[in-house]
Amino acid sequence: MCVVCGCAEIEHEHEHSHDHDHDHGHGHVHPPRGDLHFGTGAARVSVPGLSQERTIRLEADILGENNRVAARNRGHFAAHGVNALNLLSSPGSGKTTLLCATIDALRARHPALAISVIEGDQQTSFDAERIRATGVPAIQVNTGKGCHLDAPMIEQAFAQLHHHAHGPSHVDERSLLFIENVGNLVCPALWDLGEAAKVVLLSVTEGEDKPLKYPDMFAAAQLMVLTKTDLLPHLRFDVARCIEGARRVNPAIGVIQLSATSGEGMAAWLDWLADADGGTRRLAH
């Protein structure tokens, strides 16, 4: 069960402003009658059979254990010189296509860089097989009915990837771990995997309103990558509005526009990867 699939603060601040004082006059705009909002309680989610208080306690227990494992993951990554990035998006945004193009480009630019991938899906190993075809090691994690990866899953997958390849003497080796999360713009935002940064991909085929419709995801990310920009001439996608929406949710979020097909914008993405910590702060400005 996903712990929270609620609205972000920006949404229920807006909703709260319309839930009281119905005599403000003609200047006060109300949502249409009949709208239902289940994310405005203290827990920001409605779970049948559970009170808001019990839901909050359950969330704290589950996330607390996850975060303890995430901290352990972070220690493991640091000990092995691994920079781990959590890639998040809806299905079909181009995560695996971008990863394959990125692997090829990084090999040309940084041939000594070790790369590995953890692939998350509910079923199949299709994406892991695509990554393995590039020659990069990949572990498939199938979540069954689960809608996101969690820290214990990553701990087990990382152990399989690295228990032979890395040891304490390799602490200075450069290594990049991509975690391709389950396609979902809601649930994965909440779960710390021990990653250095969350990167959210948004395809221009999805619509520029997504940062405001799914704000928790964009609030959690350090970088937004607009993908499939080669299709912009054929779409009604307002890039400026999309970026404005993302920065309304997260003023510090960095933005890169690219096409893995045409190669446009890939250089900026590779630069960010080469120095993810500094790149996060630099691109935000």
SSE map:
Layout: H1 9-16, H2 52-79, E1 82-88, H3 95-109, E2 114-121, H4 126-132, E3 138-142, H5 151-162, E4 175-180, E5 197-203, H6 210-213, H7 215-220, E6 223-227, H8 239-249, E7 254-257, H9 266-274, H10 276-284
Question: Short summary of the structure?
Answer:
This protein has 285 residues and is an alpha/beta fold. It is 38% helix and 15% strand. The chain contains 10 helices and 7 strands.
Label the structural class: alpha/beta
Number of DSSP helices?
Answer: 10
- Cα end-to-end separation: 37 Å
Helical residue percent? Answer: 25-40%
Work out the number of β strands.
Answer: 7
Instruction: Walk across the major sheet and give the strand order.
Output: 3-2-4-1-5-6-7
**Looking at the structure, what is the overall shape?**
globular
Would you list the SSEs in sequence order as H and E? HHEHEHEHEEHHEHEHH
Report the average pLDDT across residues: 84
